[in-house]
Amino acid sequence: MKFCAALITGGRSSRMGADKAFLDWHGVPLWEAQLEKLIALGPETVFVAGRGEQALAARVAEIARLHPGVELRCISDPPDENCGPMGAIARCLLAARAPLLVLAVDLPLMTAEFLRARVLERGVFLRGASGCECMAGLYAPEMLPALEAAMASGDFALHRVIEAAERAGLCGMESVSDADEVFFMNVNTPEDVKTVLRIEKQRARA
After folding, report:
1. Measured at the alpha carbon of residue 52, what is the angle toward residues 48 and 57, in degrees to the nearest 5?
2. DSSP β-bridge partners for residue 45
3. 87-99 pLDDT, tens per residue?
4. What is the structure's pLDDT at 149?
5. What angle do CA 63, 67, 68 make, to 5 degrees?
6. What sign for the dihedral angle of Cα 198, 202, 203, 205?
7. What is the pTM of this model?
8. Backbone angles phi, psi at 88, to 5 degrees
9. Which residues contact 168 (CB under 8 A, 6 or more apart)?
């Protein structure tokens, strides 16, 4: 299946106290570690969607030279936008005009293997204990009008768009096992970072 991917890096990181896209993750900025996971899946294009002040373009161009088979493109959020990740996803989906695998920068325990087996190959979103996992799923091009309509109405809840798409047959939805919930642990605070690092070590020893 031809598809594109999008790494969403533009969160404000207010609870972290620093931009979580640039957290050190085993010696590299977290956004670069996440980008490599998407590149490994073989998309036609990977969009890196974030705030202009993150100034990612130069480093993205360097990474692109190491992966000549994949196009890498930066897409910047408008400076006055305040709709969470929905705007970034809609812009990437418009540019892709193909199924779009979305990954949030703050899911460091997510793996390329899990994305391939559970999301990409099955064409689904996953539902965990806290509801639909909107930031690691496959968005169909046909979902773009609903995203645009939601933004126009001021409703920025991605899960409602995804659930409506499921009812319309535009995407699938499957449950996440208790064991797989770990892949969706995000880092919003310094304490979250300590927690995911501890879990990572535990999983490596298992």
Report:
1. 50
2. 71
3. 999 999 999 999 9
4. 97
5. 120
6. positive
7. 0.94
8. -65, -45
9. none
Separation between Cα atoms, residue 47 and residue 112, nearest integer Å: 16
Count of residues for the chain? 206
112 token code pair? 């390329």
Statement: residue 174 has pLDDT above 90: yes
> What is the percent of the chain where pLDDT is above 90?
84
Strand-pairing partners, residue 25, are 28
CA dihedral over 124, 129, 132, 136, signed as positive or negative:
negative
Q: Report yes or no: 96 and 141 within 8 Å, Cβ to Cβ.
A: yes
131 phi, psi to nearest 5 deg:
110, -160
List CB contacts of 157: < 8 A, sequence separation 6 or more.
150
CB 96 within 8 A of CB 4: yes
Q: What is the DSSP string of the chain?
A: ---EEEEE-----TTTSS-GGG-EETTEEHHHHHHHHHHHT--SEEEEEEEGGG--HHHHHHHHHH-TTSEEEEEEEPTT--STTHHHHHHHHHHH-S-EEEEETT-TT--HHHIIIIIITTTEEEEETTEEETTEEEE-GGGHHHHHHHHHHT---HHHHHHHHHHTTSSEEEEPPGGGGGGG----SHHHHHHHHHHHHHHHH-
Mind listing the pLDDT tens digit for each residue in 70-85? 999 999 999 888 888 9
